[in-house]
Amino acid sequence: MSFSYDDFFAKDLEESENPFLKPNSRRTGKDLSLKISILSGVFLALSYSTVQFQNFSVLCLGFVYFLSGTPALIQTIKDLKNSIINIDVLMTLAALLSVCIGAEHEGGLLLVLFALSEAMEEMVDRKTKSALSHLNSLVPTLATVVQPDNTRFQKAVQEITVGTKIFVPVGEIVPLDSKVIEGSSFVNISHITGESIPVSKTVSDTVVAGSLLIDSPLLLEVFKPSNQSTLAKIIELITQAQHAKPKIQVFLDQFSGIYAKTIIGLSLFFALALPLFGIAFLGTEGSIYRALAFLIAASPCALIIATPTAYLSSLSASARHGVLPKGGTSLDALSRCKYFLFDKTGTLTTGGLSCTRVENHTKYPLETILSVASSLEKNATHPIARAIVTFAEIKHGKDLITKEVQVIAGKGVKGLVEIDGQFHEVFIGRSEREHLTEEVVTILKMDNEEAIFHFKDELRPEAPKIIEELKTMGRVFMLTGDRREVAQPVGRLLGLEIEEIFADLSPEEKLEKIAEMSKLENCAMTGDGINDGPALVRSSCGIAVGTGLSSQTAVEAADIVIMKNDLTLIPQIVRQARATQNIVRQNLTIALSVILLATTPSLLGLIPLWLAVILHEGGTVIVGLNSLRLLRWR
Question: Which of 137, 142, 141 is nearest to 191 (CA)?
């Protein structure tokens, strides 16, 4: 980005630098580059319309060169000191040459339109950076630490360690990722996840940094330092995204320097060599006039901003809605995907199994069976284990004494459980009968008798609509490790055909299936980012949904992280990615068309210098405005 008035005065507008500056003054000082370019345009119009009053016209033109030319001149001096030839050097050179050949108004028009296009590019960049500055401003720099004797004192957030207790009053923002140890409150996290509805938090719940307490204070225990908080990860991810340039942008950045030098060389050749060799040309204008028109028409202003403004606008819109792509490369990859692959459990379904019923074929009452099962499974983290414990709590099961508890990988858990003073050997795990039912079942065996637990995984309510929407953009497939008897009914509810459901897949088989499908089309894989990490990496574009940034695996494996646990954002980000590609193509077409259509007529003297300026800078302004369309979420 070139030097600008906004850069020069930005620091003075910050509240930390000038706390007594009035809000009206602060607003007036914003977007100075845009305002000054418009003011320069007014002075240029006055200069054109008052040419009969020579002194006044020259004065107005002087203001144009001073206001619009100063930033370009400063940047040009910096670039030349570093031996850099770029668009700022080209435009400054063209403006100075315009004055030398008596085309002052054309030079002024060039500076005004160039300043306007630069201001628009800055506006796109600033809108993207405003998401970062807003996130940075969310977290307080101080937190109220609570000591063991309940005394409180303020301490810098960066100095607070894990395990520290902090107090957050109503209306204040939580400074660090913490766990609630006392109190309950609704919190607003819309600026982090895009979730507009306040979320209830109570004892043992986690509260992320940046959450706003709505109705009650909370006593919290910090479990992550400030540099590892959820908000810090979001800021880091957005920053990385802004610096991750797509291939086309990298190419144009490298190409622009060589191109600028080539244009200067050709302009010198057309200005000096043609007259020396006596080459005839059309029109009455001299070779320097033509060469200057060629220099302006061939300058790659629009070409240079064609891709960065589009990607920055799209990334900004995505971040505002809680969708974090890892740069324009991720959007490019997603835009090319025609196959959309989904994990089932936790992605298309809620992932929270619930126990629906128990077939008790033992001599013990149901309450005892539930007590035995929950006692054996109470320390396990598997969804089935959690569902058994929850169901037992609802049915008032008791906590029994256990020993020699052993987890058998892929099969279940076994151990000894005390009932009426005697230990009984118990096994809970996979049932030989599970292939006979569409439900998830687990068997409990004890004393050569058994009880069968039935479970259900609820389909996400928005899932069928999302699948239907994605089918208009490509094909949708479900990949799961569940049995076919369980997977197919879920697939039918989603509107999937039999051949679009792949079940009984081990993690290795899932990777093989993705590799096989990737040979046919680019694949976007959606999962929770934890168990599906390898699958997300293997696909053309991995999308982690539902975990936010709580999982480092999700952040590292996925190309796109969706903060909110909402599948409706998937077709939206697909549309956004494809719209970004369309806008980039449109921008490049406009930029190249302007160069091709204006350069040859300018060189031949078929169009005047002022028209070459308008065509060149007009193309740049159109490209900038076209990119701004991506700030609207699809």
Answer: 137
Q: Looking at the domain 323-349+460-563, which fold is it? A: Rossmann fold (3.40.50)
Helices marked H in 415-495: 463-471, 484-494
Mean pLDDT, range 43-53, rounded to an integer: 85
| Separation CA 88–CA 81 (nearest Å) | 13
Domain 140-228 sits in CATH 3.40.920.10: no
Query: What is the rounded CA–CA span in Å between residue 109 and residue 297?
Result: 13
The count of other CB atoms within 10 Å of the CB of residue 10 is 15
Cα dihedral sign for 486, 488, 491, 495?
A: negative
DSSP secondary-structure letter at 269? I
Residue 109 in contact with residue 610, Cβ under 8 Å? yes
Instruction: Between 241 and 463, name the one with better pLDDT.
Output: 463
Q: Helices marked H in 150-189 — which ranges? A: none
Give Rg (Cα) of the chain.
33
State how far Cα 497 lies from the chain centre: 32
Backbone dihedral angles phi then psi of residue 358, each to the nearest 5 degrees: -130, 125
pLDDT tens per residue, range 388-445: 998 998 888 888 988 988 877 667 889 999 998 899 999 998 766 555 455 667 889 9
Give 352-367 pLDDT, tens digit per residue: 678 888 999 999 999 9
pLDDT at 425: 92
Q: In which residue ranges of the chain is CATH 2.70.150.10 found?
A: 140-228
Residues of the chain with CATH 3.40.50.1000: 323-349+460-563
Strand spans (E) along 163-233: 165-168, 178-182, 185-188, 199-201, 206-207, 212-213, 218-222
447 is catalytic: no
| Helix, strand, coil percentages in the chain from 3-state DSSP, rounded to 5 | 55, 20, 30
Q: Which residues pair with 142 in a beta bridge?
A: 156
Q: What is the b/e burial string over 189-220, where b = at least 16 CB atoms within 10 angstroms of the residue's CB?
A: bebbbbbeebbebeeeeebbbbbbbeeebbbb
CA 178 to chain CA centroid, nearest Å: 25
The answer to whether the CB of 123 falls within 8 A of the CB of 623 is no
Query: Are 424 and 448 within 8 A, CB to CB?
Result: no
| Domain 354-456 class, CATH top level | alpha beta
Catalytic residue (one of 343, 532, 559, 566): 343
What's residue 219's pLDDT? 93
> Which residue, among 330, 277, 296, 347, has the nearest Cα to 510 in the 3D structure?
347
- Strand-by-strand arrangement of the 475-479 sheet: 323-325, 560-562, 541-545, 523-527, 339-343, 475-479, 501-502
Q: Which amino acid is at 474?
A: G
Instruction: Say which residues have a Cβ less than 8 Å from residue 330's Cβ, sequence separation at least 6.
Output: 241, 244, 541, 559, 560
Residues of the chain with CATH 3.40.1110.10: 354-456
The two structure tokens encoding residue 228:
């590892």
Helices marked H in 429-523 — which ranges? 463-471, 484-494, 507-518
